[in-house]
Task: structure prediction
Amino acid sequence: MLEEVLEGLRGPQKSLPSKYFYDERGSRLFEQITRLKEYYPTRTEKAIMQQYMPEIAECIAGDSVLVELGSGSSKKIRLLLNHLTNIAAYVPVEISGKYLAEVVRTLKQDYPNLLIKPVCADYTKPFQFPPIQNPHTYYILFYPGSTIGNFRPCQAQQFLETISRILNPGGGMIIGVDLKKNKKIMEAAYNDKKGITAAFNKNILWHLNRELNADFNPVNFQHKAFYNQEEGRVEMHLISEKKHEVSVAGQTFFFEKGESIHTENSYKYTLDEFEKLVQPWFQLKKSGQMTIIIFRCNI
Ligand code: AVI
Result:
């Protein structure tokens, strides 16, 4: 974490890896974001999943292991679990350990017959996959929420390549991706009136203060989010309100008034662009090898 953070703050455009939003408080704030009126992706994706669940469930063999990377509240997986019998196991992978433990506790109560093998890990790095005692043939990756949009397209391709090597033939991926749409709708989703997204953005600084002995004062920064048309992404930044300095693990960083820390990219795709992105590794229709189901996250 320290290395990544220092590297990001040393660049001419200061930046922080967006995965560090998600400590316990950050995960809760994100949960609140998903319920906001302005934040359309979650409810839209849920509606699509509900509508097409019988077709989706049909594509998943009974002895599959469901793997969810960045499982968070594990709410959407319930839609799948409710439609599937005889799943070999569910493997939620989540960076925030406390949150994961809490979520798994309630899942176990609600699905007493399901084998749940939680993994507390940063899934962007190699991690130990747990042994699955139940017989199983296929791995199905569940990757909803347009989280793929938080990678740069070249990183997304590397990620897809890694995934395709892990999934045995016959395995597959259920992925959610937010499509390009009206700029106003996209910008409103990241600038909610209640200020929850602003609190979520600033939470990364509290996280660094705690974990890396930093002394950011979040009051000195303002939340900014906008759609960058050229890059096809919503960007989130924290803008320094005044000239000041901050110490991180004993190293000093200078901020000018108005200088930004780039904290997140959320890429939006057209369906064509997304097809091109996944094409080297995944087929879009069910085939003997691999299945990918694209959820159209449209308003
Ligand atoms: C998790 N990820 C897909 C969210 C997004 O829309 O990029 C994170 C988020 N950032 C601000 N609001 C939500």
The radius of gyration is 20 Å. The first helix runs from residue 2 to 10. The pocket of N,N-dimethyl-L-histidine is lined by residues 33, 145-147, 149-150, 190, 197, 264, 266 (CB under 6 Å). Confidence is low (pLDDT under 50) at residues 286-291, 295-299.
